[in-house]
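Batch job 17 of 40 flagged for manual review because the log was empty.
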Amino acid sequence: MRMQASALAAKAELMMLAQTRGALRTILARPAARAKGLARIEEMRVPGADGDLRARLYEPADADDAPLILFFHGGGFVCGDIDTHDSLTSWLAKTSGARVLSVGYRLAPETRFPGQIEDARAACAWALNAAPERLVVSGDSAGAYLAAFCALELNMQRPGTVPAQALFYPLVHLDHMLWAEEEVRNFRFLGRLAALYIAAKLGAERFPSLLELDLARSPTTILAGGGALDPVRADVRAYAEALRGQGVRVIEKKYPVLMHGGLNFTSVSKMAVNVIGDVGAALRAEFASRAATC
């Protein structure tokens, strides 16, 4: 009887998660919110660690020889897809002047950690073949974690493989004790609950914190973070300090009223468009600087 009750509870939880995913798609997957004037938007499939992954390529009119930006969506590893982040990635392409390839990955709890990293690795390998020496990574929240982890890993294997990364309010760790210590001081109680839920769904015995890694080979990093409504802001500060401590160039963009996940609402938030535009402009400047020194 107890096992039957547990199975029913697990089934109900999966149904609730499916409803949450569907609701997010209804709210956020709005092609009308895409940036206007892109030259091409193409549906694609790219190899993952266990089968093909959905992907979407955004090409601005002035892409020319700009690097390819590989983008991983957020959603706590349990929600989100390339559709919920369609407007964000389209605006990133428009404002950076680069092609953006938004790639999905398998979600938890259906896929246990590190399946998400394995998919991101496979996508990076494919993208490097498509744009050798010209790959930049990006992502928001959990997707930013995947981007930063893979960029560091690739650069440790071969320095300079990924020259830059653009991270929007990155999820840096799921350390329960650290979130608990800062729960009140940094207004992080909601973030702590989210971190506990994510860790449980990932089913990981060990989730590597970016703060525990040797960050010396990390690429030039553009960081965009929020204020009181962004529970990861303390981690973003710590990550920026750790990168600088290892000699990595960091460009910080701070927005006091930006909430976590707020960049998905470009259709109703001028600030969201402006934040993405700031990061896009920083990437343009980085591309131009590197082209000038080549």
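Reviewer: the log was empty due to a logging misconfiguration, but the result itself is present. The CA atoms of residues 58 and 185 lie 41 Å apart. Unflagging and moving on to job 18.
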